[in-house]
Amino acid sequence: MISTLHIKNIGIIDEITIDFSKGFNILTGETGAGKTLIIGALGIVAGGRFSKEMIRKGEDHSFVEVCIYLPNHPKAIDGNIIISREIFENGRNTCKINGRLVTVTELKEFMNNIINIHGQNDNQNLLNKENHIKYLDKFLGKEFLNKKVEYDELYKEYVNINKELKENYGDEKEKQRKLDLLYYQLNEIKNSNLKLNEDEELEEQHNLIINAEKIAKCLGTADLQINENALNSISIAIKNLEKIENINIKYQKTLNSLKSNYYDLQEIAIDLSHYSSDISFDDVQRDDVEKRIDEINDLKRKYGNTIDEILNYQKDIEIQIEKIENSEEKNKELKNKLEKITNKLNEIALDLHSIREENKIDLENKINNELSDLEMQNARFKVNIEKTSFNKDGIDDIEFLITTNTGEDYKSLIKTASGGEMSRIMLAIKTVLSDTDEVPILIFDEIDTGISGKAGNAVGEKLKMISKKHQVIIVTHLASIAAKGDSNYYIYKEVENNNTKTRIKNLNEKEVIEEIARIASGIVSEISIKHAMELRTAI
Length: 539
Hints:
single chain, 539 residues, Rossmann fold, 6-stranded antiparallel β-sheet, 55% helix, 19% strand, elongated
């Protein structure tokens, strides 16, 4: 159960703390005082949507924290679980479970099994068709659920074998398609005769080809200047220095250095001559180089960014081909196993289907009786079961249908009639399934909309019955419902420093009677107090 709820900066709520009790918790009070904001805050901490317009004016964030007492829950610490959510004006969310950061999705998945919020437009679990089979199966009892466990285990094995067969290309068409593709890729790479670093050598060669004219011109000029000018000038200089080298040691050193440079320059001249002789490319050679570069680039786009990666991919292809071609024996074994499991699954699934078909009428009758108690004598509830392909629940596609008036067709719950009718339909189902519904906390936002009189009193009785096994928190405007509360809270507004703020008060018994009287007649008088006491003692 929710033991404490703390809300800060949501709408007109600046900061309030509510200590709820187990059983039936009633929220009443002035219109616009913040009752629905409290339910909205519970929706936010349960992972629901949040609009930044909900942040209190002048503040930059909202904060909701709830302490839930669930002593048998694996996440409980000393029996309690602390959940919080802080939302900032820029849209940033901070969600925590017992102080550990979680995503909004993780928070929602966690809280789905703890809190069920029902409003006029938010029907949650019950109106989700995928949950209908779960409700029916829980209604059928432990023996049925044990049989379903056997099916679940076999179905998981069935899924795993199919997955393994797919990975091993157990399907013959898929296998051949994959082999054709792999052999095509292998042959394309092999036929290309790639060599390591070949692409770099080709790029270098291509660069020389496209710059051949420029290279030849520059090499020729350099060769001419060295041979005809530089070497000749240095040779004359050497001869003159030889004439004076014996006069002073420094002239001899300079001469030696100059000779060394002369010999180096001769080597450079020889290299330039060789370079020039290499620069002779024709258009055919250029086309061949460019074609080869394009071929390698095409392979890179398909199989890897480098030649090394392409060759490694070739090795991977060869391994895959060998695995596929040698998988026949393993796949044969898996297919035999799959056939046995499929037969067993079919047997159990048909059994599950028969049990569901045989017992759905019992569920229908009980819910229809509850609808009658809720002043919906003409309504009829139906469990629609259709056979489908294998799934995790068997071979059944199940949906709850309803008709609210005699002569009308059955429709899905989410398409059904008015808010008042929807509320009572939901309550009827909740009442019948309350023994099997594992969600411990049920929250209702103005479930009494569109109903009054006998129907309102009947709704109150059903909610009271549900609250014996679940904590129920409800916003109501009906005295007949408020009179049945275990704990009643009055929500009101007060103005402080020109700011409107929400306040909450846990009412004592005298105050509860007065609040019931106010709701029933609009004023607190001797007559309305007497009527309120009658409603209160009727519980």
